[in-house]
Amino acid sequence: MKLDRRILDILVCPVTKGKLLEVGDELWSKQAGLAFPINDGIPVMLETDARALTEDEIESLKKR
């Protein structure tokens, strides 16, 4: 389920205040190296619920 573009334009990373990229069911923060989950269409923007991006995921962001 894709987030509405307007919501994605408003949301920022709670750690860096930078832009987020929707990847599958997560919002990725390139600057923080974190992935925030989207549960039932609702972004969970808590740093404690985020997971660290893997090296491969970080590399894939460099190509975007």
What does this structure look like?
This protein is an alpha+beta fold. It contains two helices and five strands, in the order αβββββα. Strands 1, 2, 3, 4 and 5 form a five-stranded antiparallel β-sheet that branches. The chain is globular and about 25 Å long.
Helices and strands in order:
Blueprint lengths: L4 H6 L10 E3 L2 E4 L4 E6 L2 E2 L7 E2 L2 H8 L2
Antiparallel strand pairs: 1-2, 2-3, 3-4, 3-5
Can you give keywords for this protein?
64 residues; alpha+beta; N-terminal domain of TfIIb; 2 helices; 27% strand
Domain module tally: 1
Count of separate DSSP helical elements:
2
Distance between the termini: 21 Å
User: Mean pLDDT, as a whole number?
Assistant: 94
What's the order of the H and E elements?
A: HEEEEEH
Q: What CATH architecture label applies?
A: Single Sheet
Summarize the structure.
The chain is an alpha+beta fold and 64 residues long. It has helices spanning 5-10, 55-62; strands at residues 21-23, 26-29, 34-39, 42-43, 51-52. The radius of gyration is 11 Å and the shape is globular.
